[in-house]
Write a structure and sequence with these properties.
alpha/beta, two-stranded antiparallel ribbon
Length: 273
């Protein structure tokens, strides 16, 4: 489309669109994935890569096809930000004293606990011997995320820095005190008031600050040495795509940087949703 005489690319996103694309009428799952060679050129695939997908679509698992598509999306840099947004994100990240190598957790709570994550929370506590009325909390504790990196500690690889992107900083700080990881430096977004859900305030300036904080979190989660999260959250699925790339740049070799699932389904579903 054109705006003020300039060509503008528009990427439509949002929950309603996702449900439309996943509906039977617009089946975005196996059918379209296996016909990826028909449309992957739109996300930067070369003729060779499109041909490879066409030749291998029946022999590959759906999960493997999704990995190749995720790597193409990641390579294409479909999501780019205006220069002033990039400056503000970098400015915010510079306030966080993180080394080059660090582990990152995405701990999403807030409104997710009402419905979308409730099944997994109940399942987690049931495995600990509790029922819905006796479970200690309505969320999965930080200890479950720390457990995913426990093997590094046990192997003598000391964790020094962990970045936690969360919408529940106050509770997380209390959990850190009880974690027993006294030698680890835990970091969180310095603008705590901007880490709540983007839609929780209608004031534009606050929404903008929260958007900057969210993009900074996404950047840090994507660049971490190890990422611990879950696919129940849109952010977890987006981080998966951002952390997927081709080994030596070759189609068919898509791999993710170290990703560990704290709870829930091991399948991240359709790339981009």
């Amino acid at each position: 489309m054109k705006e003020y005489g300039r060509n503008v690319s528009v990427l439509p996103i949002g929950g309603d669109l996702r449900h439309l694309l996943m509906s039977p009428k617009f089946n975005m799952s196996e059918n379209l994935a296996r016909k990826a060679s028909d449309w992957v050129s739109h996300i930067g695939a070369t003729q060779h890569e499109a041909g490879w997908l066409a030749n291998h679509s029946q022999s590959l698992s759906l999960d493997s096809i999704y990995n190749q598509i995720s790597a193409l999306i990641s390579r294409a840099d479909i999501v780019t930000f205006q220069p002033w947004v990039v400056r503000e994100v970098h400015s915010l990240i510079s306030r966080i004293d993180l080394p080059k190598r660090y582990v990152a957790f995405h701990v999403r709570r807030g409104d997710k606990l009402i419905a979308e994550a409730k099944y997994w929370v109940d399942e987690y506590w049931a495995k600990q011997g509790y029922n819905e009325t006796t479970q200690p909390s309505n969320y999965i504790p930080l200890s479950q995320y720390l457990k995913q990196v426990q093997k590094e500690e046990e192997a003598g690889v000391r964790l020094t820095d962990v970045y936690i992107a969360t919408d529940d900083q106050d509770t997380i700080k209390q959990e850190i005190k009880l974690s027993g990881f006294s030698n680890v430096s835990f970091h969180m977004n310095p603008d705590a008031s901007s880490t709540v859900h983007l839609q929780s305030d209608m004031e534009c300036s606050k929404r903008y600050s929260r958007t900057i904080a969210a993009i900074a979190d996404l950047n840090l989660l994507s660049q971490s040495e190890i990422f611990v999260g879950e696919y129940n959250s849109n952010w977890g699925r987006l981080v998966h795509t951002a952390r997927t790339s081709f080994v030596d740049g070759m189609i068919g070799t898509a791999r993710q940087f170290d990703m560990r699932i704290a709870f829930g389904s091991e399948s991240r579903g359709i790339p981009g949703t």
